Request: fold
Amino acid sequence: MNLTKLLCLSALSFSMASFADQTSINKANLYGSWQCDHDFSDPNKNLKINFNYTINLINNGTSVGNATLLFAMGGMPQLQYKEADTALWNLKGDQLQFVSNNIQFINVSHPELEQLLNLKQLFPKSVNETVKVLELSKKHIKIQSKQHNDAYTCLKI
Reply:
């Protein structure tokens, strides 16, 4: 077999394996725990955020999430927050919506700065966000925020 045919067969088998890994976008395929890691920066505000988030999508339409948030802003030490939330979630087509009125942030690195600067006021007390599911497999989900237009991938754990 010549090299061209071998390369074509290899490419075809790789793409078929990748296609076979894709699952349909439905609620049952979303149930379970997902690990998301996302970096955000705003050069105009000299702000950098790393958000490492774990969410458990439960089959009754609720979710439980927790995160480690690293927050860096020019002239300040890096702050580490722990975040915990509960939410309601719903899927309509490829649109995944989260509504949460129970979000808590705790400054674990420099609580003394929290009292001086009241940094918690920068964080949301509630979230109503819709994301578009771009890809879904048994191992990962790729979503795009409608609010920020950022796309990121979460791994099934």
About this structure: The CA atoms of residues 72 and 78 lie 5 Å apart.
